[in-house]
Amino acid sequence: MLEDVVKRYYEEAGYNCSETIIHAGNEYYHLGLHEEDMKMLAGFGSGMYSGGTCGTLIGSVAVLSKLLIRTKAHDQLDELRPVISAMYRNFREAAGAVDCAKVRPAHYQKEIRCLNTCLIAARVLEETVTADSGLLDQGFR
């Protein structure tokens, strides 16, 4: 399960929420990203360190984009939009909000920090990928 991989990256490797999702997604879905590539998500933790959109949601959208896009978003909007919209909607439902400033108070625990939010994002991401058989047909996981 993706949740197991997420837990390992968050607890053992010490990545922030957004980094955790991209690293776990890279491993679990065999995305082929290099360590240098994944550094691009470092600044999205804690809602871009401003309480904005949750870093786990941003990381999840990055994973979905890598799974879906062959050239660029504008070439595949009919495929991309419903999947990203579903991820956003389902994350909001599961976490209670999409902004870190609202998600964090509901799920943060001092002992485990944002692990609960990372696990919510992992569940929603995996459900989103599973629900869209086109993603699975592309040879991922």
Give a structural overview:
Helix 2 runs parallel beside helix 5, helix 2 packs parallel to helix 8 (115-131) and helix 5 (55-68) packs parallel to helix 8 (115-131). By secondary structure, the chain is mainly α. It has one domain (2-137). The radius of gyration is 14 Å and the shape is globular. The model has no long low-confidence stretch (mean pLDDT 94). It has helices spanning 2-12, 17-29, 35-38, 45-51, 55-68, 77-95, 100-107, 115-131, 133-137. It starts with a helix and ends with a helix.
Mean pLDDT, as a whole number? 94
Strand content: under 5%
The backbone outline, from C-alpha atoms, is globular
Q: Give the % helix.
A: 55-70%
- Largest sheet entry: none
Structural class: mainly alpha
Q: How many strand segments?
A: 0
Number of helices: 9
Distance between the termini: 11 Å
Low-confidence stretches: none
Q: Radius of gyration over alpha carbons?
A: 14 Å
One letter per element, helices H and strands E, the order comes to: HHHHHHHHH
